[in-house]
Design brief:
With 377 residues, the chain is an alpha/beta fold. The chain is built from nine helices and eleven strands. The protein has a single domain, classed as TIM Barrel (Alpha-Beta Barrel). Helix 5 links the parallel strand 4 and strand 5. This is Mannan endo-1,4-beta-mannosidase A and B.
Length: 377
């Protein structure tokens, strides 16, 4: 059976919810989007640096640099591309291939710590960092509550009851699920440590899209709840305290509010450095269709904003215009400092090199590539 990409499930979830398969009130009539936030920034939550007091010098430098980007006239948005598990093959196609075709290489490299993880990914990330780039990672680990490890089990039945995430915490009672999850954390710690030893700063966004119902760590459809905040903070404590790793910038990455408000599972100002929402379908947006386009909830913590996962919707034939990304950042979301385009899969074209108008995007004066990324001065 062919592997089904998680994007297919996410898009299906949005379609199911939009179609009214569950009892929902009649949606409001479409309103003209408002671009001004409804919450006035006060400066009281603006951090002076990473929330980890032991953060490395480069982590501090990157975050400070990101904070200045929205004030620039040019070179203010970092371009990025996600890899699949075949990191070396993808790097040649999606990064070197971009340089060969357009003379521009994505500056940010994204990797997924998933059930298909390969050790060869780490050297690829290190090499990109040493070439002057930036590195981000998210988690798609298999569901630890299942009796058998299945790499595709990060997703599941949208409406099935979710397991109790507190059973995975450091102080939880022994169980097979807890042992499996703690082993995953140990492996993640080894990866981050290897990156640390190579001098790499990692933008890490665990438990992304927790306000959706499609992942095992996400919101329970029936109860409307999740303990993902506790799981996030437990992972944060494991890496920063137990493993003493401080080469991390921590991101919170909500989905559109199809199932729950974007900030419902925000782990807290004391652990989050970057606001990194996701956007799929053919229009870059963070709202449910027909609702007011107001991102004041995500702006309120006053963290640097980054579009850490973005991609098209159907038909996945390469016709989606890459310029949609920078056009929407310029006109609606000027706070955004990065974008990271998801990779394609079998019979689906989504990567930068596979879609249209990529040359125009990468040569836009607002966009930074590896060739002109300047965070190091």
């Amino acid at each position: 059976m062919p592997r089904v990409d998680r994007r297919t499930l996410l898009l299906a979830a949005g379609a199911v919810l939009a179609s009214g398969c569950t009892a929902q009130p009649t949606p409001p009539a479409p309103v003209k989007p408002t671009l001004a936030p409804s919450v006035t920034a006060t400066g009281t939550r603006r951090p002076t640096g990473p929330q980890d007091p032991k953060a490395t010098a480069d982590a501090r430098k990157i975050l400070a640099w990101m904070s200045t980007l929205p004030q620039r006239d040019v070179k203010r948005v970092v371009s990025g591309q996600q890899l699949s598990a075949d990191a070396r093959i993808d790097y040649d196609k999606l990064f070197r291939g971009m340089a060969r075709r357009y003379g521009r290489t994505p500056a940010l490299i994204g990797a997924s710590f998933d059930g298909y993880w390969k050790k060869e990914t780490v050297p690829v990330l290190i090499d990109h960092w040493r070439a002057g780039g930036l590195v981000t990672m998210e988690l798609h680990r298999p569901n630890p509550f299942l009796p058998k490890v299945d790499p595709e089990s990060y997703r599941g039945d949208l409406f099935a009851p979710k397991d109790d995430l507190t059973a995975l915490l450091a102080d939880a009672k022994p169980s097979q699920a807890r042992s499996r999850w703690r082993a995953d954390l140990e492996l993640l710690g080894d990866i981050v440590q290897e990156l640390d030893e190579a001098g790499v700063t990692l933008i890490l966004r665990p438990f992304h899209e927790a306000n959706g119902i499609w992942f095992w760590w996400g919101q329970d459809h029936k109860t409307g709840s999740s303990e993902s905040v506790r799981l996030y903070r437990d992972l944060h404590a494991y890496l920063t305290e137990t493993r003493d790793l401080h080469n991390i910038l921590w991101a919170y990455s909500p989905a559109r509010p199809w199932d729950a408000p974007r900030m419902k599972y925000y782990p807290g100002d004391d652990v989050i450095d970057i606001m990194g929402p996701t956007s799929y379908l053919n229009t870059v947006s963070f709202a449910v269709e027909g609702h007011t386009e107001d991102i004041s909830d995500m702006l309120a913590p006053e963290r640097p904003m980054a579009l850490l996962e973005v991609g098209s919707g159907e038909p996945f034939d390469g016709s989606w215009k890459a310029t949609e990304i920078i056009d929407k950042i310029r006109t609606r979301y000027p706070q955004m400092t990065m974008f990271n385009v998801w990779h394609g899969w079998v019979d689906a074209k989504m990567a930068l090199i596979e879609i249209s108008e990529t040359d125009t995007l990468m040569n836009d004066p607002w966009v930074m590539s590896l060739e002109n990324l300047d965070w190091r001065g």
